[in-house]
C-alpha cells in the first residue's frame, strides 16, 4: 500500500528527503490488519478467572502493546519474567475489556457501551490509560439512573474515582424517592440505609417518602431486618408528617409497636399539640429536610423611591420565578419576620420616619393578614426568632434609643411580655436559633458598629458572649447552613462588605468564606434553602439592589440567581414549605 509522500530539499545540502506524510497512521493500520488476521503475533494474553483457570487468550504484538500501553511498557522493560515469556497471565479482568483495550492499541479508538463500561474502566486503570479512564467515567456518569446509581456509587468508591463517586452520590440524593423503589436500594446494608435516611439533603416531596422507603427496605427481608426497625424509624421526622398519616399509616405499622416506636409516635402527637415544647434528643426531628423547604418569601422593605413596602414576594427555586403574595396590612421596612406555628409573622419595622409597634400575621387557613398584639416598645432593625411556642423579638432602635431589651410573644393569650435583656444594645443585628441557643450577631449601638456576638442558652436562661467576628458588621444577615451559622454582608464604618463568614459552635470560631459575593451588600436578606444560601437585595452604597446570588457549598462559590422584580432594601425573608401562601 502506497501512502502520500512529498520530496523536500535540505538547505545547504545536495541531499533530498523523501517523506510520507501518513506513515505512522498507515503503519498502525497495517499492524491492525495483521492483528485481526493473527499474523506474526508474539505474545498471548491469558485472561484468568477467580479460580485461576484460563478463560480466554488474546494474541497481540509485543511492540504495539509496549508502544501504547504503559503497563506493558513497564513490564517489558523490567526484569519481570513476563519480559521474555510468550504467555502473560492477567488476573481479575474480563476478556471483553482486555480485547477492547488491545484493539485500542492498534486503532486508537475504543467503543464504550453500558455492558462494557465498568469492566473497561477497571482494565484501563490497571493498564495506566488515564485518558480512557476519564472518558469512561464521564460516560458512566451520563448513564446514571435510579436503577444503577447506587451500584455505580459503590463501584466509584472502590476504584477511587472521586468525580464519578460525587456524581453518583449526588444523583442518589437528588432522586431519593425513585431510587428507594429500585432493587439496588433493597440490597443496601443497614449502614448505607441509615446514612441516607438521616441526611438533610435527600430530595423528597414529604417526610412520608422517607418513611415508605425505610418500611419497604425492612419488609424486603423482615426476618433479618425487623430487629433494626427502631434504629431506622428513629431517623424519620414523624412530627413533620400530617396527623392523619400517623393515625392511618404509622400507628398501624407492627414495627412501631415497640417501646421505642411508641415513643416516636407519642412525641409526634405531643408536638402537634404544643410545637416546640417537646424536647427531642435529636433536634433534627422537627427540622424539615432541605428539599421540603419549598419557597423563599420576601416581606416589606424599601423600594428605590425610598418608600416602605407592604409587598410580599415569593420565589420558587424549581421554576426560578417570582410571584406576588398577599400584601401586609401596613407598610414596613427594617422589620423582622418569622414562620411560627404555621403562620407568617411580621413584627415592628419603620414607615414614614417612625419606628413601629404594630405586628401582624398571615394564616393560610384564613388567607389574610390579621393584627397581632402590639409590641410594648416601638422597634425597627430588630431580630425575631421562634423558640418553641414563643417568639423572641430582640434589640432594634426606637428612633432615639438603641435597645437591648427582649420581648416574648405568647400566641395563646396574644401578648408580649418582657424577656431576658441582651448584654449589649443592638440595632441592625442578625439572630438565629441553633441547638436550643439564640445567637445575637453584630449590629450597632451608640458606641458604633459591633463585632461582638452573644448567645442565650434556653436551659441556663442567661446571655453570654462568645467568639467575636473578624470585624464589626451591622446590617448583615444570618441563616443556618447545616450545623453552622452563615453570616453575609453588612458594613463596618463606611465600608460595605461582600464577604460571608461561618461560625462553628463546636470550635467557637468564625471563619471567612474564601469566595466573595459578587455585590457588596448591607440591609440585605438571607435564607438557606436546600443547603444553599440565598442573599437578596440590599444596598451597595450607591443604589438599592434587585440582584440575588446564592452560595453553593458543594462548589465553594457564589452564583447569580434570579433577580427580584424590583430593587429592595431593608426587607426580611423566610423560607416556607410549598403549600404555605403559594395558593393565596
Automatic annotation (TrEMBL):
Q: Which Gene3D superfamilies match?
A: 1.25.40.420, Kelch-type beta propeller (2.120.10.80), Potassium Channel Kv1.1, Chain A (3.30.710.10)
> Is Repeat set as a keyword in this record?
yes
Q: Which intervals hold domain BTB?
A: 41-114
Any idea which UniProt keywords this protein has?
Answer: Kelch repeat, Repeat
Q: InterPro entries under this entry?
A: BACK (IPR011705), BTB-kelch_protein (IPR017096), BTB/POZ_dom (IPR000210), Kelch-typ_b-propeller (IPR015915), Kelch_1 (IPR006652), Kelch_2 (IPR011498), SKP1/BTB/POZ_sf (IPR011333)
| Keyword Zinc among record annotations | no
Name the PROSITE patterns for this protein: BTB
Pfam families the UniProt entry points to: BACK (PF07707), BTB (PF00651), Kelch_1 (PF01344), Kelch_2 (PF07646), Kelch_KLHDC2_KLHL20_DRC7 (PF24681)
* Protein name in UniProt: BTB domain-containing protein
Identify the species of origin: Amphimedon queenslandica (Sponge)
Amino acid at each position: 500500500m502506497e501512502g502520500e509522500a512529498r520530496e523536500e530539499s535540505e538547505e545547504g545540502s545536495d541531499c533530498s528527503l523523501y517523506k510520507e506524510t501518513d506513515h505512522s497512521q498507515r503503519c498502525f493500520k497495517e499492524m491492525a490488519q495483521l492483528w485481526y488476521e493473527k499474523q506474526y503475533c508474539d505474545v498471548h494474553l491469558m485472561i484468568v478467572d477467580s479460580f485461576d483457570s484460563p478463560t480466554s487468550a488474546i494474541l497481540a504484538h509485543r511492540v504495539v502493546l509496549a508502544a501504547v500501553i504503559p503497563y506493558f511498557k513497564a513490564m517489558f522493560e523490567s526484569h519481570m519474567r513476563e519480559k521474555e515469556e510468550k504467555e502473560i497471565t492477567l488476573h481479575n479482568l474480563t476478556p471483553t475489556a482486555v480485547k477492547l483495550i488491545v484493539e485500542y492499541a492498534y486503532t486508537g479508538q475504543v467503543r464504550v457501551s453500558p455492558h462494557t463500561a465498568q469492566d473497561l474502566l477497571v482494565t484501563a486503570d490497571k493498564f495506566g490509560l488515564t485518558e480512557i479512564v476519564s472518558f469512561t467515567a464521564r460516560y458512566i456518569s451520563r448513564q446514571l439512573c435510579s436503577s444503577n446509581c447506587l451500584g455505580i456509587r459503590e463501584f466509584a468508591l472502590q476504584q477511587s474515582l472521586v468525580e464519578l463517586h460525587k456524581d453518583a452520590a449526588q444523583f442518589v440524593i437528588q432522586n431519593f424517592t425513585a431510587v428507594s423503589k429500585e432493587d439496588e436500594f433493597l440490597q443496601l446494608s443497614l449502614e448505607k440505609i441509615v446514612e441516607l435516611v438521616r441526611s438533610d439533603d435527600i430530595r423528597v416531596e414529604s417526610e412520608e417518602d422517607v418513611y415508605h422507603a425505610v418500611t419497604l427496605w425492612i419488609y424486603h427481608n423482615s426476618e433479618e431486618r425487623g430487629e433494626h426497625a427502631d434504629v431506622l424509624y428513629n431517623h424519620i421526622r414523624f412530627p413533620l408528617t400530617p396527623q392523619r398519616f400517623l393515625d392511618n399509616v404509622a400507628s398501624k405499622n407492627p414495627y412501631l409497636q415497640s417501646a421505642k416506636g411508641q415513643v416516636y409516635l407519642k412525641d409526634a402527637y405531643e408536638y402537634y399539640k404544643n410545637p416546640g415544647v417537646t424536647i427531642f434528643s435529636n433536634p433534627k426531628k422537627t427540622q424539615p429536610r432541605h428539599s421540603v423547604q419549598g419557597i423563599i418569601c420576601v416581606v416589606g422593605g424599601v423600594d428605590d423611591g425610598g418608600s416602605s413596602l407592604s409587598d410580599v414576594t415569593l420565589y420558587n427555586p424549581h421554576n426560578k420565578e417570582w410571584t406576588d403574595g398577599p400584601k401586609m396590612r401596613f407598610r414596613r421596612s427594617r422589620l423582622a419576620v418569622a414562620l411560627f406555628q404555621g403562620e407568617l409573622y411580621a413584627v415592628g419595622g419603620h414607615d414614614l420616619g417612625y419606628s413601629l409597634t404594630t405586628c401582624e400575621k398571615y394564616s393560610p387557613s384564613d388567607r389574610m393578614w390579621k393584627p397581632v398584639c402590639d409590641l410594648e416598645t416601638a422597634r425597627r432593625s430588630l431580630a425575631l426568632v421562634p423558640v418553641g411556642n414563643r417568639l423572641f423579638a430582640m434589640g432594634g432602635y426606637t428612633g432615639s434609643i438603641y435597645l437591648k431589651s427582649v420581648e416574648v410573644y405568647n400566641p395563646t393569650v396574644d401578648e408580649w411580655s418582657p424577656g431576658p435583656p441582651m448584654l449589649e444594645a443592638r440595632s441592625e443585628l442578625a439572630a438565629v436559633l441553633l441547638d436550643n441557643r439564640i445567637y445575637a450577631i453584630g449590629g450597632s449601638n451608640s458606641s458604633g458598629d459591633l463585632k461582638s456576638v452573644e448567645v442565650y442558652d434556653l436551659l441556663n436562661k442567661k446571655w453570654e458572649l462568645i467568639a467575636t467576628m473578624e470585624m464589626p458588621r451591622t446590617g448583615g444577615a444570618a441563616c443556618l447552613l447545616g450545623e453552622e451559622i452563615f453570616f453575609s454582608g453588612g458594613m463596618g464604618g463606611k465600608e460595605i462588605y461582600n464577604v460571608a463568614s461561618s461560625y462553628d459552635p463546636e470550635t467557637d470560631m468564625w471563619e471567612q468564606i474564601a469566595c466573595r459575593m459578587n455585590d457588596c451588600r448591607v440591609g440585605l436578606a438571607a435564607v438557606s434553602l436546600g443547603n444553599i444560601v440565598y442573599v437578596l437585595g440590599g444596598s451597595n452604597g450607591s443604589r438599592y439592589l434587585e440582584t440575588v446570588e446564592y452560595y453553593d457549598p458543594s462548589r465553594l462559590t457564589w452564583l447569580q440567581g434570579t433577580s427580584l422584580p424590583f430593587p429592595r432594601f431593608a426587607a426580611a425573608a423566610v423560607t416556607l414549605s410549598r403549600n404555605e401562601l403559594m395558593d393565596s
